Automatic annotation (TrEMBL):
InterPro entries: Peptidase_M11 (IPR008752)
Signal sequence segment: 1-22
Source domain of life: Eukaryota
Keywords (A to Z) from UniProt: Signal
Every Peptidase M11 gametolysin domain range: 160-332
Entry keyword annotation includes Cytoplasm: no
Protein name from the UniProt record: Peptidase M11 gametolysin domain-containing protein
Pfam families in alphabetical order: Peptidase_M11 (PF05548)
Residue spans crossing the bilayer: none
Length: 335
């Protein structure tokens, strides 16, 4: 127990001085002002797709918004995701792959206070993709994926479902017969198994779920800032998060009317309170991690209701899969 307490104390210290450390992966930074550093090496590009949802009947509708972000690995085994200002968009998305391509802007400032990469107006931007784009076009999402569901508490707001409920709604640990695990098994013909993160009593992980406390207020906070607060708190509690294929953050209410969001080709999905127990939202956002954009119809980005990359649904249990082309893309159909 004494060793565990000392280890956590050391990790907390590392988190407080995180930007000063030289990372071993893709980014090295030099200090300018407090918690602000000049970018020296590329970050990983991630496309963040969010539904700013309103509720109409049984579906979630509203504007979709997306932006490109910088993912920065750290020595502690957890990655942090930074917005970019001004917003940056590639000249052609055909030449950029979320989760694969890297981004470098000369003179850019990485601000660990606001979680923003500030790009100078005259900066030379270099985007590189390590593999030919045709090699990254199709993915094989089969086998076993491990998911850690993170229930978030703040000083002024608490995610309304318990860990037990989250474990049931995601993995069927209780009486819920329609959950992410059961649906991915059914939709993939048992080619994809979504497993809960292994129990880790010392970190409070049980049934694939864990609660983290932020120790600060979130009402009115920026949801992307709060996401990085969760990553910090989770790293302190469980250590490196690289052992998990996917991280699902179940946020407390108070940060707006958005539904959920995910990162194409990334590992993180984020849910606004009750949407964390809606199986259609769970599968939709994991679909973004699988590199899916939305399935739409002319004039309606979410209009394809034949699959889960269209609308998400307010009901708890939704018996639906991805549409046929997306399921083939994942390797779930025989050639």
């Amino acid at each position: 127990m004494r060793l565990e307490i000392i280890s956590k104390a050391i990790l907390i210290i590392i988190l407080h001085i995180l930007p000063v450390s030289t990372t071993t992966n893709t980014l090295v930074v030099n200090r300018t002002k407090k918690n602000q550093y000049v970018m020296q090496k590329p970050c990983i590009l991630l496309k963040r797709d969010i539904q700013e949802a309103q509720q109409v009947n049984t579906t979630a509708t509203g504007d979709s918004d997306f932006e490109w972000c910088c993912e920065i690995p750290t020595e502690i085994g957890s990655n942090f995701i930074f917005s970019m200002e001004p917003r940056w968009y590639p000249a052609s998305e055909e030449k950029v792959k979320s989760g694969v391509s890297t981004f470098f802007a000369a003179g850019a400032i990485i601000d660990w206070n606001s979680w923003i990469v500030h790009i100078p107006p005259d900066s030379d931007v270099v985007v590189q993709t390590s593999l030919p784009l045709w090699e990254t076009k199709y993915v094989d999402i089969t086998g076993t994926r491990t998911v850690l569901v993170v229930r978030v508490e703040a000083n002024d707001s608490v995610m309304t479902s318990s860990e037990e409920t989250l474990s049931d709604e995601w993995f069927g640990a209780g009486n819920d017969l329609v959950n992410s695990k059961s649906q991915f098994m059914a939709c993939s013909y048992n080619k994809l198994i979504i497993n809960p993160a292994p129990d880790l009593p010392s970190a409070g992980i049980e049934g694939g779920a864990v609660t983290v406390s932020l120790g600060r207020n979130v009402n009115g906070a920026n949801k992307y800032t709060a996401e990085n607060w969760v990553t910090q708190a989770l790293s302190v509690k469980v250590g490196s998060t690289s052992r998990y294929d996917h991280l699902a953050y179940c946020m407390p209410p108070g940060m707006g009317s958005w539904l959920a969001y995910g990162y194409l080709g990334g590992r993180v999905t984020v849910y606004n309170d009750a949407w964390c127990i809606k199986v259609s939202a769970q599968m939709h956002e994991l679909g973004h991690n699988f590199d899916f954009d939305h399935s739409g119809t002319p004039g309606d980005e979410y209009g394809d209701q034949s699959g889960l990359m269209g609308y998400s649904y307010r009901e708890d249990d939704t018996n639906m899969c991805f549409n046929a082309p997306k399921s083939w893309f994942l390797g779930w159909y025989s050639n």
